[in-house]
């Protein structure tokens, strides 16, 4: 956890705040109960504003929030140029190691396939102190192993985590496609298993099938478990009868991720415009 923020919340049933944040797409790095109906949660630094907006509109009190890890070091470093230079040098050294493989973890029901997975990684030149591999390429090859129906590859903090799930090969695959999470333009599409039915730049409707739950082998169509993710962008324009800051926060709650956001004063409040982004995934870690 290099760049992260800690929030201390207080209120009745405060543990439910974790479920609410997860439903809003916030990744909870850690959560710890504290006395007097308090809860300490840690999120990544780039999600702190969205987290604050969600919690501000809830029944929980935010007692305090502060940075952790390198984020805290960087904020302190701003107080002195000399300290900042020293931290910058240390940060570069740390970041160089963070982008290198310091440990390889194989998790999930397919952890017993560790020797085969390490062999696949070695074949791609991935080992200790090597650069982090391309997750999609590695996952696609691991999915070809017997009984493997799900694979997620993540590199973070020098740790390469390969999560593998296996199943009974005689079990019928669930023919559930991946659907567009919103109407708009396909911004990104990653397909590890399944058949893509749209391309980046295509316009889609909400609920439209974007990845079919089958593979094509010549003229033969074979059902499979979809492993894919799609990101759709769409224009946002909504007026709020509140102050400017409240309008911004409410727009984040209404639409989630927003970029190119700007506000315009209106007779009744503030008009919030920007570009919204919605993600949909199936069996994609």
Short description:
The chain has 285 residues and is of the alpha+beta class. The protein has seven helices and 17 strands.
List the helices and strands and how they pair.
Layout (H helix, E strand, L loop, with lengths): L2 E8 L5 H8 L4 E7 L3 E7 L3 H9 L4 E8 H9 L3 H18 L4 E5 L6 H10 L11 H8 L5 E9 L2 E8 L11 E2 L4 E10 L1 E2 L6 E2 L4 E4 L1 E4 L2 E4 L3 E14 L3 H12 L1 E9 L4 E13 L3
Parallel strand pairs: 5-7
Antiparallel strand pairs: 1-3, 1-4, 2-3, 6-7, 8-12, 9-11, 9-15, 10-12, 13-14, 15-17, 16-17
Helical fraction: 25-40%
Give a count of the beta strands, DSSP E runs of length 2 or more: 17
Strand order of the largest sheet: 11-9-15-17-16
Global shape: globular
Strand content: 35-45%
Instruction: Give start-end ranges of low-pLDDT stretches.
Output: none
Order of helices and strands: EHEEHEHHEHHEEEEEEEEEEHEE
How much is the average pLDDT? Answer: 82
Number of helices: 7
Description:
This protein has 285 residues and is an alpha+beta fold. The chain is 26% helix and 41% strand. It contains seven helices and 17 strands. It has helices at residues 16-23, 48-56, 69-77, 81-98, 114-123, 135-142, 244-255; strands spanning 3-10, 28-34, 38-44, 61-68, 103-107, 148-156, 159-166, 178-179, 184-193, 195-196, 203-204, 209-212, 214-217, 220-223, 227-240, 257-265, 270-282. The strands form five sheets. Strands 11-9-15-17-16 form a five-stranded antiparallel beta sheet. Strands 2-3-1-4 form a four-stranded antiparallel beta sheet. A hairpin with a 2-residue loop joins strand 13 (214-217) and strand 14 (220-223). Helix 3 (69-77) runs antiparallel to helix 4 (81-98). The protein is globular, with a radius of gyration of 22 Å. The relative contact order is 0.11. The mean pLDDT is 82.
């Amino acid at each position: 956890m290099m760049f992260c923020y800690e929030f201390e919340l207080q209120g009745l049933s405060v543990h439910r705040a974790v479920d609410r944040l997860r439903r809003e797409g916030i990744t909870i790095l850690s959560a710890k109960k504290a006395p007097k109906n308090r809860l300490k949660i840690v999120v990544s630094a780039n999600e702190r504003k969205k987290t604050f907006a969600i919690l501000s509109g809830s029944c929980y009190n935010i007692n305090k929030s502060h940075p952790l890890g390198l984020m805290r070091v960087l904020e302190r470093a701003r107080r002195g140029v000399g300290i900042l230079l020293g931290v910058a040098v240390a940060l570069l050294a740390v970041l160089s190691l963070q982008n290198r493989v310091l440990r390889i973890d194989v998790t999930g029901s397919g952890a017993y396939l560790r020797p085969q997975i390490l062999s696949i990684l070695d074949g791609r030149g991935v080992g200790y102190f090597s650069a982090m591999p391309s997750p999609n390429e590695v996952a696609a090859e691991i999915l070809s192993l017997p009984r493997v129906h799900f694979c997620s590859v993540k590199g973070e903090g020098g740790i390469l985590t390969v999560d593998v799930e296996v199943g009974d090969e005689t079990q019928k695959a669930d023919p559930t496609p991946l659907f567009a999470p919103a109407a708009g333009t396909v911004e990104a599409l990653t397909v590890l298993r399944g058949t893509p039915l749209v391309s980046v730049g295509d316009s889609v409707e909400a609920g439209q099938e974007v990845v079919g739950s089958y593979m094509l082998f010549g003229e033969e169509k074979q059902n499979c478990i979809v492993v894919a993710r799609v990101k759709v962008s769409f224009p946002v324009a909504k007026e709020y009868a509140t102050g400017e800051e409240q309008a911004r926060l409410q727009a984040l709650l209404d639409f989630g991720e927003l970029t190119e956001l700007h506000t315009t004063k209106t007779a009744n409040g503030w008009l919030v415009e920007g570009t919204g982004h919605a993600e949909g995934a199936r069996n994609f870690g």
